[in-house]
Sequence to fold (703 residues):
Amino acid sequence: MSTERRRRPRPPTPPLVPLALAAIAGVAADRYGDPWDTASWGRIVVGAVAVILAGAHRRGWAWDLALLVAFAGLGGGWHHHRWSDLQPDDLAWSVSETPRPAWVRGVVRDVLGIRPDDGPQGHATTRAVLEITGFCDGKDWHRASGRAQLIVVGDRGDLEAGQPVEAAGALASLAGPLNPGEFDHRAYLRAQGIRLRLTVDDPEGVWRDPDGADWLLLRGLGRLRSWSHARLVEGPDPAVAPLASALLLGRREGVDPDVNDAFVRTGTTHLLAISGLHFQVLAVTFLVAFRMLGLGRRTSFAAVGAMTVAYALLVGLAPSVVRSAVMTVTVCVAECRARPTRPANLLALAALATLALNPAHLFDIGCQLSFLAVAAIVWGVAPATHRLGWAYAALMLRVRGPGGALDELDRKLEPWWKARMRRFSAMIVPGVIVSLVVWLVTLPLVTLRFHLVPPIGLLLNIPLIQLTSLALLAAGLTLALSAIWGPLGVPSAWVCAKCLIWTESLVLWGASRPWGHWFVPGPPWGWVLACYGLLGLATVAGYNRWPGRRRAWWTPLGVWLALGLGMNVLPTRPETLEADILAVGHGLAVVIQSPDGRAVVYDCGRMRDPSVGRRILAPALWSRGVRHIDAILLSHADADHYNGLPDLLDRFSVGAVRIAPGFDRGTDPAVAQLLQAVRARRIPVRTIAAGDAWEAAGVRVSV
Fold:
């Protein structure tokens, strides 16, 4: 056979993929390079469009290049406008990180919920997003703009989206992270257009604006969300209502922190985020229902597309929601017009729509994982299934030898339970392969952003997807029937509650397995980008080349992965003894690292905030590449000096815990419980006394 006949024909490049990549490049260039202002980006687009129009009748490489430049310019300019530009009357121009009194009016864009015990003296806080329309200087009102995170100390459950309000409190710009590796909450809110924080220390500090008008669309969606949440809470088991609300409405604020942490540890948080799974389950269900009702094929797909848009508006246009909704609606439109679809084009169109809605979504971890997971399913599952099937067949041939007529007869005469097990395995294996491929492809990004490797997710995903899919359908049916007559929704609410109880129990069980997850410092950004670049080349290379050429791409990918694992094991080694005195507010936490890479922690607490261990201390240690803490020194038995220790014990191996004299002699049960947890992990607890000396982190410590 000739060389030409052995080559496979190369499929045409999907037309939207280069455009999406160009837009992504423009957004990334503006974020990290910030080379031009919005007007300059606009001039680039105008110049590129002129070239496109001039060469419309004789397209060539210059025309293609101009089209790519135009989309890159659109991406960069749109991102610069959303990320960097401010209106002249935006209050962000005139405030600093130091709070100052302010009296503003605006419209509530979204109500994020009530957080118990989150305010001063343990009071609840109500959080919302406020679109500012004016401010008062004490005498007159002036027009203004800006978007603020509204924090009200107290319960203001009566606030609704779309409601015009006035608020008096302390206004400040958002503060950035103060510690190494700390999550950048300012950038997270800035991506949503929020640059201000308005803190109101009394529930009466927010009241309805008598001169304002409701934003009807926001008000309607807000009331529908509130009604839906109330119906779910009224179910047979209110304890699982927060999970039901997260599953159906995407509202995770009410989920217990321990339950949410269990989902994180097991790598199953995607089940609580509105994603392709939710849209797929609902779309298939509605399509089957419409067809059973006698609707035509085109009408059914059109109705599914319309309901997809309505559901996306109801739950909010998060990146994963936009991606899933765009792909679902596009498939529905294609089916209505009897046109084929290509996965690459679908994904590229979803990327363009996501960037058009908000270009900052490119840097959102949920958006990145959502697109990565879909790409893994589309381009990774089929090759993996083929390879694993070939390997299994080769193994069976080696173990059993070639089959014959007797083997076929044995299979026909085998007991019914053995045949059922074989059919059950055939049903489960495809799901396991999908879970494995997605887990492997997303692992570099997960370790980078979450510092976590959760192998137990491979085991839990299969049953949890079935449970949450059934719970999703039951919750939707509950709302539909409750809208007709409340008691009609009771049976489906019971099914939803049972599924979520089993889901929560399974996740908590998985999170409690010590072998189910482990924490790691995480690889550097450059390694992750190179890893995905090599993975992409390995996936697409060889369409018109010999198969060996494609396999050759896996060699540098394997080498790069090995190098990344090596970098992940070795700690960062400072040139001299270094110490980070971390900004924890009312409390103390100090990280000390020696030139040989070993680390010591002195105190690890914050007043009324045990999460300081996982939010501040652990990221600071991971930023130094620390996996093992030689010693943790606790100065005294006040909670703001030790309450972050449990999280450190979960995330790091610890050589010893050293306590001050009298630390364990008080009556505080929290101290006794803490020391019991330390000893349960077989970590030695030693009391420090004057004259003691020991080696820690390569340094001799004397008391």
Observations:
- Residues 365-400 form the longest helix (36 residues).
